[in-house]
């Protein structure tokens, strides 16, 4: 029985599938499709973080998020320093998340 995935996978996954004696098909993505696939993979991995229940699971899922972010940053030609500077600026302007604030509602002026 065939199961369709249609998603970006880590580089060694085809080797693991082949070693298991299974048939598969992979495609090499164009640069634009690769960038889109990385962004989609980031969403997939963050959903998995949300579903993780133990510290061990969270650690594994956050490692996946970090791997995708590392790759995406390189592919987009951004440096981690630029990301950290943007993070620092946002923290200065809007704060962090240390206060555990959950915004429930805002009443707009008429």
Automatic annotation (TrEMBL):
Keyword Hydrolase: yes
GO molecular function annotation: hydrolase activity
Lineage: superkingdom: Bacteria
Listed name of the protein: Nucleotide pyrophosphohydrolase
Key words, A-Z: Hydrolase
Signal peptide span: none
Record keyword Nucleotidyltransferase present: no
Alphabetical list of SUPFAM superfamilies matching this protein: all-alpha NTP pyrophosphatases
InterPro entries membership: MSMEG_1276-like_NTP-PPase_dom (IPR038735), PRib-ATP_PPHydrolase-like (IPR021130)
Organism in which the protein naturally occurs: Adonisia turfae CCMR0081
Pfam families: PRA-PH
